[in-house]
Amino acid sequence: MNKALSIILLHLSTWSFAQELTIPSKPVHISEEEYRHGKLILENSYQQLADDNYNIVMNDYWNFATAYSMMGQPKEAVYDLLSKAKFSDKESFCELADLYHEHTKGIDSSRFFRLLGDDYKELVSDCTVKKDRDAFDLEAYIRQGGYDEVLLYRLHALQMADQAFRKKRDAESIAKQLASDQVNILEAEAIIEAYGYPGKSMVGEKFDYVIWMVIQHADLSYQEKYLPLIAKTVQAGELNKTPLKMLLDRIYHKRTGSQLFGSQIGVPFADDKTIESVRLQYKL
């Protein structure tokens, strides 16, 4: 290993807890609402980090960068965090950046580009790596984990159907995905009825989120119906907490126009009292 790489790795591994847990003060030029939005994202990220025994991964660095950009922190700090995100897991970084740019209708409209300019474009310029789902060896995964073959094939098909047209933004693709979502939730219900929620111990970490994902994309009535099941699955350690937070955000957004944990881009937060109440209710 060369010296430069050793220094970078050391820097990543010795990220101080004091820096991690710091809530930056609000600069004069940042609005209260923007600062609060970033602060809540940062606090949620710190909580997630604590839940993961302070094992910092790509998503943590990305979330820190997002929060810092909203809280008016120096652009050098935001760029440094994005660089750490990319270095820690380039493929996942590029996939997340791709999704981010879809939400912002292109790189030039993104918050990071507005803050960092061409430095951000250069950072993502080599993001051509995409996971090839068709190359995934499902049979080997089933054999190695000793999983139920019928269940895994059903989940794999459901996963494909959930994403079939979702990344396309034309009217025809959106209509096709909405129609597919209505069928997918019925299959998800059939699986739940036959197996219960297929969590981590039943299907492994590559498929424990599939049923949640279909519920996340379903109508509000289904989201509310299965919220207790998702919460119970999370509390049992069969699914991590992030999907539950995202489902709560989706439900609360549809009900009130606000969110609780920061997973909905551009959506305002609920009041602090409501957020704390939901945290306590779901042990988040």
Key terms:
single chain; 284 residues; mainly alpha; 16 helices; 0% strand
Write a structural description.
The chain has 284 residues and is mostly helical. The chain folds into 2 domains: 122 residues, no CATH class; 106 residues. It has 16 helices and no strands. The radius of gyration is 20 Å and the shape is globular. It starts with a helix and ends with a helix. The N terminus is likely disordered.
Q: Could you give a short account of the major beta sheet?
A: none
Query: How many separate structural domains?
Result: 2
Query: Tally the helices: what do you get?
Result: 16
Beta content: under 5%
Cα-atom radius of gyration = 20 Å
Note the run of SSEs as H and E.
HHHHHHHHHHHHHHHH
Quick description:
67% of the residues lie in helices and 0% in strands. α5 (75-88) crosses α6. With 284 residues, it is mainly α.
Topology of helices and strands:
Layout: H1 3-13, H2 17-20, H3 32-51, H4 58-70, H5 75-88, H6 90-103, H7 111-116, H8 118-124, H9 138-145, H10 149-163, H11 171-195, H12 200-203, H13 210-216, H14 220-235, H15 241-256, H16 272-282
